[in-house]
Structure formats: C-alpha cells, structure tokens
From TrEMBL:
Residues 16-156 form the NADP-dependent oxidoreductase domain. GO terms for cellular component: cytosol. It holds the Pfam family Aldo_ket_red. This is Aryl-alcohol dehydrogenase. Residues 168-220 are annotated as: Disordered. The keyword Metal-binding does not apply.
Amino acid sequence: MKYRLFGRTGLRVSELLLGTMTFDDPAEAGRIVDAYADAGGNVLDTASAYGRSEELIGSVVRRRDRFVLGTKYTLSRDAADPNASGNHRKNLTVSLERSLRRLRTDHVDLYWVHIWDRHTPVEETLRALDGAVRAGKVLCTGISDAPAWVVSRANTLADWRGWTPFTAGAPGRPGLAHRAGTGGGRRRPAGRGGAGRDPGAGGAGVDPPPVPVGAAAGRG
C-alpha cells in the first residue's frame, strides 16, 4: 500500500480508504478491518448517518492510534427533529459528541461536512468546526458534495479570520467508473487534498470489490 500526504498537512494516508457505510455484522466488520490493515490501509471512513457503522468501528478497532479515523455530519439523525440535520452549529455539536461516543474515542482525525447546506451561513459552519479543532476533538476538516466556489470562499474566509480551513474535499457521485461525467463545478481547489467516493459507482459496469473502499488522492 502506498501513502500520500493529506492536503496541506503532514498526515500520511493510504491511497485506499475503507468505506464502512454497509457495515452491519460485527464479525464481518472485524474481518474486513483486519484485512484492510494487514494490507497497509490506515483510513477508516464513516458517518453519523451510516446506521450502526460508527458503533461497529468503535467495537472492532483495537489499534485506534494506528488508524486515521474520519466521520461526517449533516444528514438527519432524527426525522422528528428539525435541527437534527444541516451544517449549523447545533447539529455539528450534537453529531460530533454522538459520533465520539459511538466510536469510543476522544477525537476524530478527519471530520467532514457531508453535504453542502445552502441554508447555513458558511461562517457559522467554519466557526463551529474551528471550535471543535481548538477543543482537540477534531484534527482536520473536510467538505463533501460542495461546489468548488463554496470551498474556495470558505477557505478564504478562514485564512482571513484565523479559523481552521477545510483540509480536503470529496466530490459527489458518480464515482471513478464514470469520472468523465463528473463536471467541473465540484473540482477541488488547488492545494487541497481529495478523497474519491465509490470508485466502482456501486458496481455499475464493474465487478464489485471484495472490500468496500474509496480511493484517496494526496496533494494536487
């Protein structure tokens, strides 16, 4: 397994990230994580909206410091609660604390904004993320499924105001199997790390891999 620097950081990540969205069985999850680690992989990706995924990672990962652990927030945690989704400070705070409990850790290495929320001012999201970084609960931040101009504007504001900028961005689907149609609107800004999701586009037109993974890119 080869490693690359993650964005403008000294953090070394394997070229393949292990996506854990479909984790459901503890024994199977443990076997997959062990096989991935034995192959040299060191990045585990989950999200607050991925069902039992966070809980299973927390229960099967025995070498926490060996992994670069990432999770995401934005998507709804509770359909009956109007504030249980979005990129605002309340949802970030509640989601992060919930994720830390489920993952059985005191910090995450990568904390992602799962989807761009046009209703929440980007300043609010950045300040909340910066607070989590300063509190030691998050090491690096990223944003997924957001137009490049949103990320560029956010990082310009962060640079001006001394906040933590987004370290990385991840495009939305389709995956690498259909990369010719990804379009330019969501290309990552120069100098930021990138993480490609679902390289096989859910198995469309390709043989499904034995382990659900996504590809990671280092510096652009």
